[in-house]
Design brief:
about 350 residues; alpha/beta; single chain; Glutaredoxin
């Protein structure tokens, strides 16, 4: 009998214990991806340290003949690091005499007031102001009212136009798109081809998700866009789900817009509020869903495309909400989330 029980134990129990051990080992060995490609940085020493009362900060700046410039930052943000290094620090002479610059951490806990009375944390302020990109730079007038906002990284040339637009108070007379056209910008960009670009003149007939890229010959960021973002595998796979069209924002080429109106590329760009080149505007089901006019690398740009093409805007109020879910799945599958400029492979 004892021999029978021993045999039964070997047949039934030992294999079960072995399977449990193997499963436990597999779970322990499961690889979880990492977030890589972030860049540490810090605000310049010449940025102001204040009590973060924007009403007071704006009034103080105005008394000095300046505007307050609020730089919404995030630790490890590669775009913030790049903007500080390329657009802010080298152009200190164009910033410090005309702007009082203040850094805000969008995840921070410092107390901030926008009206001199009500207090909130930096994180709460970022939520209130619907910060969707970092960096976000907001310029305030003497009454602490925003007069201009940059969403994301703008290169040195683009940023100079924005600084001049605010410094000269041109915002009281015109939009920055019109202001940019008045600047003596030398043509420096020849339109680059892309295999997925479609030739469309009647946008009212488009039934697929639509992605419109506005460029022009003065664009200083367009070459990099094509060479470092639009040729990445994850991006091209998403672009295939769109009717992808490029328009010249400064030419009067005749088109029919998404509402069926006869117009030109330049007039449609103006109607849509295109501020600078390059600008992406995505449409789906007859409505604008998301736009981008700051530089994004392939991880974030492919996520924005997927947000629209996959109709995730129906479940997620913002693309950042969807990005969080998408990135979590990538990490849990063992893939790294690479935030860097060269974070995704080129097409094979």
């Amino acid at each position: 009998m004892q021999k029978f029980l021993k045999i039964l134990f070997l047949i039934l129990v030992v294999p079960f214990m072995a399977s449990v051990t193997i499963s436990s080992a597999s779970a322990a060995e499961k690889t979880v991806g990492k977030v890589i490609g972030g860049q540490q940085h810090r605000a310049p020493d010449w940025f102001k340290e204040t009590f973060l009362d924007f009403k007071e900060d704006a009034a103080e700046a105005a008394a000095e003949g300046k505007h307050a410039m609020i730089f919404f930052d995030l630790a490890g943000c590669p775009y913030c690091a790049r903007m500080m290094a390329e657009s802010v620090e080298p152009q200190r002479a164009l910033i410090e005499p005309y702007f009082n610059s203040i850094a805000i951490d969008i995840k921070g806990a410092r107390e901030v007031s926008t009206d001199g009375e009500n207090q909130m944390t930096e994180k709460q302020l970022a939520t209130k102001m619907a910060i969707r990109f970092t960096p976000t730079i907001v310029f305030l007038d003497e009454n602490a009212k925003p007069v201009f906002r940059i969403n994301g990284f703008w290169n040195a040339s683009q940023f100079r136009i924005a600084l001049k637009f605010v410094r000269t108070k041109a915002y009281k007379k015109m939009k920055i798109g019109a202001f940019a056209k008045l600047q003596k910008s030398v043509p420096s960009y020849k339109m680059k081809d892309h295999t997925l670009l479609a030739n469309v003149t009647d946008f009212s007939k488009i039934k697929t998700p639509l992605l419109v890229l506005f460029e022009d010959e003065t664009c200083t960021a367009c070459a990099e866009l094509h060479e470092s973002v639009l040729n990445r595998k994850a991006v091209t796979e998403e672009l295939k789900k769109f009717t992808f069209v490029r328009l010249d924002a400064r030419k009067d080429n005749p088109i029919i817009d998404t509402d069926g109106n006869k117009t030109t590329t330049a007039k449609w760009a103006e109607k849509l509020g295109v501020r600078i080149s390059p600008t992406f505007i995505s449409f789906d089901e007859g409505k604008e869903r998301q736009r981008v006019d700051g530089t994004l690398y392939s991880h974030h740009f492919s996520a924005i495309l997927a947000y629209v093409s996959g109709k995730h805007y129906k479940q997620h109020a913002t693309w950042l909400s969807y990005l969080g879910v998408r990135s979590k799945k990538m990490l849990e599958s063992g893939k790294n989330v690479d935030l860097s400029k060269d974070g995704m492979p080129l097409p094979q």
